[in-house]
Write a structure and sequence with these properties.
Blueprint (H helix, E strand, L loop, with lengths): L5 E3 L8 H21 L8 E14 L24 E16 L2 E9 L6 E11 L5 E8 L6 H5 L20 E10 L2 E8 L41 E12 L2 E13 L6 E15 L2 E13 L8 E13 L4 E14 L7 E15 L2 E14 L14 E9 L1
Antiparallel strand pairs: 1-2, 2-3, 2-17, 3-4, 4-5, 5-6, 6-7, 7-8, 8-9, 9-10, 10-11, 11-12, 12-13, 13-14, 14-15, 15-16, 16-17
Length: about 400
């Protein structure tokens, strides 16, 4: 699904609170007009792009039934626990050049019932030499894995993100260096706290990874309060290789020294992962594996581990119709604490219809199977939490 881009010129100097609100209203109004009319205006200045995502959801179970609460993985958990319609997301991106080798980019999200969020805002310095070197400084998108990088642009034809997305490093404040020298791609970042789900893994209350800590506190990049934790440090990176046409392999890793709020202590978090994607004709195949280990907690809690994987297959029937399937598993384990163990498995069946170049209708049914141990040998019975979701996305 391609995005049209609207380019306009404006001046921000002297903009007060009232004019700032007017500017936001104006941007949203232009976004809606671009989607509905498909006739972007052109002028010198900033480039505006984005999307509007509206949907419908029907979910099994009630408020406490695990995955029901995160039913729309393509949103920030804004949907009601009741079945019905919802505005999933309104995204506005601003971009432009300050000079030939310096550009800027900012991404904002406006969701009903939630404060506007800044998913990314950075300056990019380019050195188009033999290594295609780029440096980004500010709030940067995750450089790890496949899913965060693909989902940020909203081009995934699945409605929901996989079970892995909450434990992949989200948007962070810091500096990243990236580039390529064929067939190798590289990206490394030094940032603040890694912001996985906005909380420590060991903070999961009853052991279920599908409780409130499993909800995405921010759209795609999972931007939360911990993104601005200045007394924490994360080193992350990814190396990718494209040995054949259509094939990409990658390894990712991160090491975080996380602050314990209210104390001078810290805890360690290590993330390792691998990803692969392959496109052959009308078929696409992708998969990721991630393992996160957290220890050194000042509270004396034992080592906590979360790991999982997914594999997804897609097929373009023609230029308009697409079908896909995905299998995902996630496991949480805490040393010597059976009550904090949990297993989740999801089979997703999805379809998408491209109405036009910038409008797509997506549908997905998730079969969720969750076992919460809580001291029960072999796990408790399956929690009823299957989910059906529809999503209509208009991009501009």
């Amino acid at each position: 699904m391609s995005r049209e881009r609207t380019t306009v010129g404006f001046t921000l100097s002297g903009m007060g609170r009232t004019s700032g609100l007017s500017f936001i209203r104006g941007v949203l109004g232009m976004a809606v007009a671009a989607v509905l009319c498909g006739a972007p205006a052109q002028a010198a200045g900033v480039t505006i792009s984005g999307y509007i995502d509206a949907g419908y959801i029907a979910a099994e179970g009630g408020v406490n039934n695990g995955l029901t609460l995160q039913a729309s993985g393509a949103t920030n958990g804004n949907l009601s626990i009741n079945d019905g319609f919802a505005l999933n997301d309104v995204n506005i991106d601003l971009a432009g050049d300050l000079r030939d080798d310096i550009s800027y980019y900012a991404s904002f999200n406006f969701v009903t019932g939630a404060a506007p969020s800044i998913d990314a805002a950075y300056l990019e310095f380019k050195n188009p030499g033999p290594f295609d070197l780029k440096l980004q400084a500010g709030r940067i998108f995750s450089i790890m894995g496949i899913e965060p990088r693909v989902a940020e642009s909203n081009i995934s034809k699945f409605v929901n993100l996989s079970l892995l997305s909450p434990i992949l490093v989200g948007s962070q404040d810091g500096v990243a260096v990236m580039g390529s020298f064929s067939p190798i791609d590289y990206a490394f970042a030094v940032t603040n706290e890694d912001n996985i789900g906005g909380s420590a893994l060991s903070g999961v209350g009853n052991g279920s990874i599908s409780d409130s800590t499993y909800l995405r506190p921010g759209i795609y990049g999972m931007t939360g309060a911990s993104a601005n934790s200045n007394n924490a440090l994360t080193l992350s990176g990814r190396l990718g290789v494209k040995p054949l046409e259509g094939l990409e392999l990658g390894i990712t890793g991160a090491k975080s020294d996380l602050a314990v709020p209210g104390t001078a202590a810290s805890r360690d978090r290590t993330t390792v992962g691998a990803d692969a994607s392959f496109v052959y004709g009308a078929f696409s195949l992708s998969g990721e594996w991630v393992k996160v280990t957290e220890d050194g907690l000042a509270t004396g809690q034992p080592k906590t581990e979360m790991k999982g994987f997914y594999a997804a297959l897609g097929y373009d029937i023609n230029k308009s119709w697409w079908i896909g399937a995905r299998y995902a598993e996630m496991n949480q384990y805490q040393l010597n604490n059976v009550a904090a163990q949990n297993d989740v498995r999801t089979i997703s069946l999805a379809g998408a219809y491209t109405i036009s170049d910038n409008v797509i209708l997506r549908a997905e049914y998730d079969f969720n199977d969750e076992s919460v141990y809580n001291g029960v040998s072999g796990g408790a019975a399956e929690i009823p939490n299957d989910v059906f979701a529809l999503s209509l996305v208009g991009s501009f």
